[in-house]
Each structure stands twice: as C-alpha cells, then as structure tokens.
Amino acid sequence: MDELKKHIQLHRAELDTDEPSGLSWSNMVSKRRPVVRNLVMRWTVAASLVLATGALIYFFPAKENKTPMAVVQVDHNWDIRVARTIPAITATSDKQEKTIIQSRRVQKKKAPVPSVMYGFEGIEASYAGMLNLQRERLRMQPIYVDAAYFDLFKKQFAGLNNQEENVKQRIRKTGMQDIYFDELISIYQEKINVLKQLQLEINRINTRTRQADPDINARPPSYINL
Amino acid sequence: MRKAGQGDEHARGLLYHQFAKAMFNICMRMCRTREDAEDLLQESFILAFRNLRQLKEPAGFGGWLKRIVINECIRYTKRTVRWAELDEGHMQIPYDEEDEWFSDIAMSRIHDEIKKLPDASRAVFNLYAVENLSHKEIAEALGITESTSKSQYHRARHLLKERIIKIELKKAHG
User: Fold this and answer.
1) pLDDT at residue B26 above 90?
2) Which of A105, B25, B44, B156 has the fewest beta carbons under 10 Å from its own?
C-alpha cells in the first residue's frame, strides 16, 4: 500500500465534510418510481374501449330485420358452437320459418387480452430479451479476423447505451413522458439494428476470409465481447 | 431495524440520519455534481430499505448499506465515464514515494481536490484509496483492465499532488 493510501485510510473519517441537503429525506419519502400512469391509463382505456366495442359487435350484432325476439340454442356437443336463432312463434303469424342466421366457430382458446398492467417495464424486458439473445449469439460466433475490426459497432452500441441511460435519468427526475417513451423505443430499435448489422458484417468478413485462405479454420478464431 | 424493515417511516428516518452523511460523501466523491450525488444517495437508501429483510445481522447495516452505495456509484460510473480517455493515462509519470507531501494537508482539502479529479481518475482513486478495493476488483467492477486501473490511480495521485502543492504555494506567497 502506498503512503498516500495509508494516510487516507488512517484519516478516512476526516474526508467526510459534505452534508446532504435537508430535503433529501423528505424527497426520498415522497419519491416514487416514475409510474407510467398517463401512458398506461391511456392504453388501458384504449384497450378497454376496443374490447368493449368488439364484444358489443360480437355478441350483439345489429338486427337486419324486424323478426320477433329469437331463441338462441347452443350446441355443447362439440367445440364448434352453432348459434341458431329461431324466430319466436307468435299467435299472429301462421307461417313460421326456421332460419339459421349464422354459425360461428368459437375458438377453444380465448383471444389473448392485453394485460392492463403492461407498462413500460414489460416493453423494456421484451427488448432486453431480444438484445441479450442476439448479443449471446454474437459472443459465441467465431471471427476469423482481428475482433478490433468491429470496434466501430461496439462504440455505436456503447453510445446507444449511454443515450438510453441519459433518457432513463431524465425519466427518474421528471417522470415518464411520451417523448421519453418514443426516444427509448427508437434507441432499442437502433440497438437491435446495430447488432443485426454487426452480425451481417461478421458473416461477410468471415466468408471473404475463408475464400482468401481456406486453411483459416485451422487457426484459433477470435470472439467479440459486446 | 425490524421496524424499518416493516416500513416504519420513523425507524427508517433514524437510520437515514445516522448514515446519510457518510454515504453522501462517498457519492459526492464519485459523482460529477451534487445533484447526482443526492439522487444516488436517495436511490441507495430506497434500495436498502426495500431489501432490508435480506440483512441477517442488524449490526451490519452500515457496512451493508455502504456496499449498496458503492455498487450504485460503480453503476453510475459505468454509465457516465468514457473509458476511451484512459488510453492517455497509460503514461508512467514518475512519482516520488518518499515524498509525504500530504502529511500537513487538511483532509478537507484533499477531499475537495479528489472531487475535482477527471472522471476516470476520480472513480479509480476513490475506489482504490478511499474505499479500499483492489485494482483487480475495480477492473472487474468497471469493465476495465487492471493496468488501466493502476494507470488511472497513478495519474490521480500525480494530479492531486500537483494541484494541492500549487494551491499551498499560492497561499504561502499570498
């Protein structure tokens, strides 16, 4: 241990001369993780409206004729439910016609309902999953040139990481807003694009190298660390 | 501690006020700005309180909290420091080990000058000299080489000595 470090370790407590602001504790108590309230609320309302409208259309189709109230029979024997509407028999009507209006195939499995709790964290997790998968593929791919050849892609990716963190810092300070959401989506898309371009470039360079030197496979390859 | 783990705000407040100053100074030395340090301090405490039930020994809260703060500072450093700068710091600048220039310097002065170091040197200097991590641990944590860590520490020592001695000479000559 050098003398400066020894000196600092000996007098460590004397280094602490700064005080946090008096508001730190109260800020902390009132601090909540930025909730994507407005965005999730909007999505929830939109999703609910779509579902409600769809349900209305599905279960209550517009009546095209003035047929009296009908009886619906449901066949439970198979998965296919056949809905038949049979006009009600009225005393005034001598002729009764049985009409099968529609038969619908009802799916065994219900259509997936978007989770009302699907906030930004879910989107981030999806993108992170895709990115990690692609990164893992790239890490395991042998490269038959100096890996430094691809440094530009690494720098681009690192730059996007920085941009992502900057946006997240702004979100932490001011809360989620539409503009930040859009920025993050663009960044994630760009990251995926960079990794894809890197993959293509590695493939291209490897092919060219193998063509120029068929014995290249005998030599130990390098690997990229992203 | 038990009450704090159950969400008792008063208990948490007591813990906060007991440890905030020490933790804040770690953040102040690692961060670029006071605002960043305040944010990091709050994030660290929130994280600690959220995970308080994982702490087996209540007496170890201080050390445990410090590790959380240092980890958060390391994450901050990885986000904000551009390690491309390190290439310039690899020059071996001669440093006189015998010269204890710092022995008469107030620790508050050293603390002030540490905060003014360039980002990369400051991060490594704090982690090595103040928080007592090894160069190997620093390299692993920050994603740099041990050689880079040592070079940046060396650079930080040199800069501290240069700047502090310059200030002291200025003061001496009025």
Assistant:
1) yes
2) A105
Which B residues, 19 through 78, put their C-beta within 8 Å of a C-beta on chain A?
Answer: 20-22, 24-25, 28-29, 37-39, 41-42, 45-46
| Distance between CA atoms of residues A161 and A226, nearest Å | 12
A73: which 2 tokens? 């029979």
ipTM of the complex: 0.84
For chain A, helix (H) and strand (E) counts, in that order, are 6, 2
Amino acid at B96: D
Model confidence pLDDT, tens digit, residues B96-147: 555 678 888 888 889 999 999 999 999 999 999 999 999 999 999 998 999 9
Type of residue at B28: M
Can you say how many angstroms the Cα of residue B14 is from the centroid of all Cα atoms in its chain? 24
> Phi and psi for A28 in degrees, rounded to 5?
-65, -40
Closest partner residue to B111 (CB to CB) among A7, A9, A17 is A17
Read off the pLDDT of residues A51-74 as tens digits, 9 standing for 90 and up.
665 555 555 555 444 444 444 343
How far does the CA of residue B172 sit from the closest CA of chain A (Å)? 23
Tell which A residues from 10 to 39 touch B, by Cβ distance under 8 Å.
11-12, 14-21, 24-25, 27-29, 31
Q: With contact defined as beta carbons under 8 Å apart, do B125 and B153 qualify?
A: yes
pTM for the full model? 0.50
Q: Report the 10 Å Cβ neighbour count for A136.
A: 11
**Which among B21, B112, B157 is the nearest to A20, CB-wise?**
B21
Q: Which two tokens stand for residue B169?
A: 């000479």
